[in-house]
Design goal:
Elements: E1 4-10, H1 17-30, E2 35-38, E3 41-43, E4 46-48, E5 51-53, H2 55-62, H3 65-69, H4 74-81, E6 84-86, H5 92-99, H6 105-116, E7 121-129, H7 140-147, E8 151-157, H8 161-174, E9 179-186, H9 194-204, E10 209-213, H10 221-224, H11 230-236
Parallel strand pairs: 1-7, 1-8, 2-7, 3-6, 8-9, 9-10
Antiparallel strand pairs: 4-5
Helix pairs in contact: 1-2, 4-6, 6-7, 8-9
Length: about 240
């Protein structure tokens, strides 16, 4: 089959993009697909046994069965999964400047195409929110448009989420991209009028609600994957 790809973005940083991306990988893997996650730009790394690693990238690798099965050379896949690993945990364009790195969209596109050649489903996790800068002239929205993938929006369910989600949806539409669906991630367990906010978003966002993730102190992507409805995931691949 032709590989399908999704670009996962969020209403802000820290809203659960990595959790949702990994959960999507687990969910599609459980349906029998070859899956791989991609984090084009990761800001924030620690050294483990002399190797620089990013927590989000490692979570995606753990959820990717293409890597586990050794479908392609592991060293090559590692470079494709995360073309830009920036060590400082700040906005990507600042971290890249600190490191003397220039983030190039064609390089990311090339890495994506390599992954799409060895997988059925590629889940691409963006950095920060939809329009976080990647360079003096480019941002994450430019990257999403360059890849041309349907968008899955992670909404951090807390006070202010309505405005953030609807503005992000407008920005996605303005780039000529499709909002394939959205995920409600309950960040604030004490959020007032949670159900009413969920209804308001369901009425206004152009894509379907793919899953509701409950608040969890230590969320587990594999467990959360069971909350995605298989029929809805299958529709996204049509």
């Amino acid at each position: 089959m032709t590989a399908h790809g999704f670009f996962v973005t969020g209403t802000d940083t820290g809203v659960g993009k990595s959790l949702v991306s990994a959960a999507l990988l687990h969910a599609y893997a459980s349906l029998g697909y070859r899956v791989v996650g991609m984090k084009p730009v990761a800001a924030g790394a620690n050294q483990i046994d002399g190797v620089w690693c990013n927590e989000d990238v490692e979570q995606l690798r753990a959820a990717s069965n293409v890597i586990a099965e050794g479908t392609a050379d592991l060293t090559e896949i590692a470079a494709w999964v995360n073309p830009y690993l920036l060590r400082t945990p700040v906005a990507p364009h600042i971290a890249a400047d600190y490191q003397g790195v220039s983030i190039e969209l064609p390089r990311i596109r090339d890495a994506y195409e390599h992954l799409a050649a060895v997988a059925d489903v590629v889940v691409v996790e963006g950095a920060g929110g939809f329009k976080v800068p990647l360079s003096p002239t480019r941002d994450s929205a430019d990257l999403a448009r360059h890849l041309g993938l349907p968008i899955i929006l992670v909404v951090g369910m807390r006070l202010g989420c309505l405005n953030h989600a609807l503005l992000t949806a407008e920005a996605i539409a303005a780039r000529g991209l499709k909002l394939a669906g959205w995920v409600a991630n309950r960040l604030d367990p004490e959020m007032q009028a949670y159900d009413e906010n969920l209804i308001a978003l369901s009425m206004r966002l152009p894509g379907p609600l793919l899953a509701e993730l409950p608040h969890a102190e230590l969320p587990d992507a594999h467990a959360m994957s069971a909350l995605f409805v298989p029929k809805k995931l299958a529709v996204l691949l049509v």
